Known about the structure:
mainly alpha; elongated
Amino acid sequence: MVEQHHGSELDQAGQTRRRRAGIAAFMTGLLVTLAFFAFFPGLPHVIDAGAIVVSLVVGAVSQWACRAWMSRTASR
């Protein structure tokens, strides 16, 4: 009974860590992509709907990659 409770706490701590890392990865991908569209030379310096959609997609992909990497390393 005690082992189950202790294992549950460890699993919950791991989930919290993965959630925080996923949020950080999403925000990093989003902000880096928006900065790219805003400041890269040669591009019009306008953040339009397409740039926002691409930034959201890049953020989602970076979040997915971070969670997959953390799950893979946690299983080892």
